[in-house]
Amino acid sequence: MGEKAKKEMRAPIETGAPDGFQYMHPTMRKNFGQWKYHEHPRPGVLVHYANSGEEIWTVRAGTQRILDVFTLRTLCDIGDEYADGYVRFTIRSNIEYMVKDKAKVEPLIAAIEKEGFIVGGTKNSVAMISHTQGWLHCDIPGTDASGVVKAMMDELIDEFRNNEMPNRVHLTTSCCQINCGGQGDIAINIQHTKPPKINHDLVSNVCERPSVVARCPVAAIRPAMVNGKPSLEVDEKKCICCGACFPPCPPMQINDPEHSKLAIWVGGNHSNARSKPSFQKLVAAGIPNNPPRWPEATAIVKRILSAYKEDARDWERINDWIERIGWPRFFELTELPFTKYHIDNWRGGRKTLNSSAYVRF
Amino acid sequence: MKKHDTPMIDELENGPWPSFISGIKRLRDTHPEKRINEMTNDLLGQLEHSYETRKGYWKGGTVSVYGYGGGIIPRFSEVGDAFPKSKEFHTLRVQPPAGNYYTTESLRDLADSWEKHGSGLVTFHGQTGNIMFIGSTSENTQHFFDEINEKGWDLGGAGPCVRTAMSCVGAGRCEMSNVNEHKAHRLLVNNFMDDMHRPALPYKFKFKVSGCPNDCMNSIERADMSVIGTWRDDIKVDQEEFKKYVGLKGRKYVIDNIVTRCPTNAISLNDDDSIDIDNQNCVKCMHCLNVVPKALHPGDDKGVTILIGGKRTLKIGDLMGTVIVPFMKLETEEDWERLVEIGEETIDFWADNALEHERCGEMIERIGLVNFLEGVGFDVDPNMVANPRESSYVRTDDWDDEAVKWYEKADEKKDSA
User: Fold this and answer.
1) Share of chain B above pLDDT 90, in %
2) What residues have CB less than 8 Å from B397, skipping those under 6 apart?
């Protein structure tokens, strides 16, 4: 590197996570840690009351999440003109505007809706789908993420802006089985059904073979010489088609336009309320990965939501509801097939079997 | 510039939900910078190609900024010949302020810098909690970082390193808050900037902080170290407010939705419609507080519960975090230092003992919780288990010594009380 180039290199300032306090609404700063209770006057709006007697009103809105700078500036314009210039984002990528005066709430809602954003996503609604990058930006995606979410939210929009569900519903999507979308009341995830297709000409140049061997959850990968070149081979009888080998070894292509399917999982719940946090369970698989609007997956999600809405009691999340009514009734109400693939055979899977005489008739 | 035909993704401009495709097209069609028009045009072209062939065309690589080894998600197109203007399309992961608070001014400032150097596409936030600035060339990642780094923004984690942390809205707005979530978030993660910016750990390590057991940050399921606000004295009850609620909703509703929903049967309804709580058996699940936030509040003796080892599927299957610290106060400077020390000791032990690409929870699964506790220096506690062991396959030669430890600890506790 020449002297000039060296001079131009600037050492980073390792400040880490900035202090959020500097960006917080003054009313929130003033009453930090001194909040007493909140109310939910209408979908998408929360009001928090402080011990001091002050209040802060929050309006929550859904957006497209992948924001262009124009949209981001529109959101800022709304914040400057109709709110107090302070915003935050929820874990599900909704924007929240905070204002001190109740009088500002209605004009703020009108301004948000005029620009095409959707007010809602609070309490017992179907919340915004938390999602990943997909074909837009990921290096290992089996499907798109933003597109699936857009297509699905178009259909679920009324459940987002109303509070007609028994409790909140968190949806997630993931474009591979690593499941970056996380746990959800309903999760729509890629499920591969065929072993990786290996480009043996590239493996030895691209992949650190021992690491790839170690990455396989079922020890189905072994080093091999193929066409005179060091490569890897997969014992296809053992392979569970999880795709864990693909990120460290791109020549082991797991994504398949036809055989990478969607699966739907239910009952993931991060909260400790009423019962301990729970992981999601498989309910449907083999669903076509069908861009641009994925109608088959959306139809199943809607079926599950409609059974839950109809049958669950107030405050029951999807996992609470199924715990009460039992899995046979769940499959009956949703008209989904129960198959041998629903029975867990992974390590520890035995704890998921019914070892009792508890049977509902 | 010839616009790519995009019949499939055009379908995503229909319908009432805001469309990201329309947003990308706005950049293509109306942004004053030709560089952005061309870049987003080719991005749309490649995305359409993905929709048509049902395959992704991005590959990773190595891109970073001077002085750091991570924080950038490199993306090189495999179909760059057809879509040359977006053939380098890296994402910068930038750490958000604790609690995800922004002013419109700070957002405008970030947008101004980003359109100078990047595609103009940004997400608040990705699943690891970062601001995702999506779409920059290798050269421009440095320029953009230099500009925003001078204004107090820093890169987040990518690769085998400490990752960007997350904390909830917290004490800024929520009455359920039991800890200064943002202080915990920043003290923990900002202590590990070297481990974040120069990836050299066995795999990723995530901190997440939730102010109460509603765990809005999904920390038990997703964080290697989960810090959750809680309290150990009684739930504070405003009986008059509670009676008002019973009057409003009726006894049946209150019994069905509060009393019988308590996971430890710690609640009963008195004859005068006030509430009776067996606080010793309350597990702080939050349900009753969520239903009647006006009448029921967290206690005053606040602190945190710490769980270690949450993660998703790869490689051995999903793991929830396990309670390592049932309760600790976060009041004095020593308390806060101890919190950071727990993070340090956990990461040190894990870095020394984990296999390559093994998350902390997977290591604990492999070596057993007791080996982890002994390695990091924690005493066993019955709060760490759902129930004691069910298998008799264990050697118990030193039972008497271990029992003595338990009694000694109980005596110490009595003395200090």
Assistant:
1) 97
2) none
A154, part of any domain:
yes
Distance CA B340, CA B336 (A): 7
- Does the beta-carbon distance from A15 to B213 stay under 8 Å? no
B315/A20 touch (CB, cutoff 8 Å), yes or no: no
pLDDT, chain A, mean: 96
Q: What is the band of B360 on the pLDDT scale with cuts at 50, 70, 90?
A: very high
My answer on whether A164 and A289 are in the same domain is: yes
- Is residue B144 within 8 angstroms of chain A, CB to CB? no
Across the interface, whether the CB atoms of A150 and B12 are under 8 A apart is answered yes
Closest-CA residue to B211 (of B269, B286, B270): B286
pLDDT-based confidence at residue A3 (cuts at 50, 70, 90): low
Count up the domains in chain B and report the number: 3
Predicted confidence (pLDDT) at residue A242 exceeds the cutoff of 50 = yes
Half-sphere CA count of B95, side-chain side, radius 13 A: 34
Q: What is the mean pLDDT of residues A137-150?
A: 96
**Overall average pLDDT of the A33-59 stretch:** 98
Q: Residue B120's domain spans which residues?
A: 1-153
Instruction: Mark whether B44 and B82 lie in a shared domain.
Output: yes
B154 pLDDT more than 50: yes
Do residue B314 and residue B364 come from a single domain? Answer: yes
B221 touches chain A (CB under 8 A): yes
Instruction: Check whether residue A177 and residue A222 sit in a common domain.
Output: no
CATH number where A46 lies: 3.30.70.3340
Residues of B in contact with A63 (CB under 8 A): 18
Q: Is B139 on the interface with A (CB under 8 A)?
A: no
pLDDT for res A122? 98
Burial B162-187 (b: 16+ CB within 10 A, else e): bbbbbbbbbbbbbbbbbbbbbbbbbb
Q: Is B107 on the interface with A (CB under 8 A)?
A: yes
Res. A1: pLDDT tops 50: no
Same domain (yes/no): A175, A201:
no
Strands A55-62 and B76-77: unpaired
Q: What is the pLDDT of residues B200-237, one digit of tens each?
A: 999 999 999 999 999 999 999 999 999 999 999 999 99
Contact A122, A163 (CB under 8 A): yes
CB B44 within 8 A of CB B28: yes
Residues A269 and A239 in one domain: no
Residue A224 C-alpha, separation from nearest chain B C-alpha, in angstroms: 22
Where residue B417 falls among pLDDT bands split at 50, 70, 90? confident
**A183 and A204 fall within a common domain:** no
Say how far residue B209 (Cα) sits from the centre of its chain: 7
Residues A189 and A309 both lie in one domain? yes
**Which positions ≥6 away from A194 have C-beta within 8 Å?**
A241, A256, A259
Give the Cα separation of A109 and A119 in Å (integer): 7
pLDDT score, position A7: 57
Q: Are residues B111 and B212 in the same domain?
A: no
Q: What's the full length of chain A, in residues?
A: 361
Asked whether residue B266 falls in the same domain as residue B385, the answer is no
Residue A282 Cα, gap to closest chain B Cα (Å): 13
Question: Who among A13, A23, A37 is closest to B97 (CB)?
Answer: A23
Boundary residue ending a domain (B297, B324, B342): B297
Same domain, B186 and B40: no
Mean pLDDT of A57-64: 98
Nearest CA in chain B to A68: B121
Question: Could you tell me if A282 and A332 lie in one domain?
Answer: yes
pLDDT at B405: 94
Do residues A69 and A138 both lie within one domain? no
Average pLDDT score, chain B: 97
Give the range of the structural domain holding residue A236, as residue numbers without chain letter: 197-243
The answer to whether B79 contacts chain A (CB < 8 Å) is no
